[in-house]
Amino acid sequence: MSNIEVEINIGGRTFEVACQEGEQQFLTSAASLLDAEAQVLVNQIGRLPETRLLLMSGLMLADKTAGLEEQLREAQTQMAALQAEIEALKNQPAPEPERIEVPVIPNDAVDALAEMAARAESLAESLDEKLG
Description:
Helix 1 crosses helix 2 (50-91). The protein has 3 helices and 2 strands, in the order ββααα. The mean pLDDT is 90. The protein starts with a strand and ends with a helix. The chain has a domain at 3-91. The longest helix is centred in the middle third of the chain and has 42 residues, at 50-91. It has helices spanning 24-45, 50-91, 107-131; strands at residues 3-10, 13-20. The protein is of the alpha+beta class. It has a two-stranded antiparallel ribbon.
């Protein structure tokens, strides 16, 4: 692959840098991050010597990166703890089945109810015959 020259802007200044063909997007993306930090300095302090501007911008960006890396480590620690908890739950024995008692109607009560229903139907039929 061949090197190509790319123009980037950082803190209101233009720089020409070389990169491998196909890596321009990564270079311009990184330059945008550095430029955002440089713009903060330019807005707060005003014009700075080029080396100081680049150094301070780089340090500010490195500080943000270190903070993100710390958050990532904390998230990875939490993720590992959650995965261990999931594994522990998976390896637990299944809970004992819960016993539920369902009331059972005694057969003689069912028979008595059926007999009463038959009598009621018989009475209803005889009443219909008398009225009808």
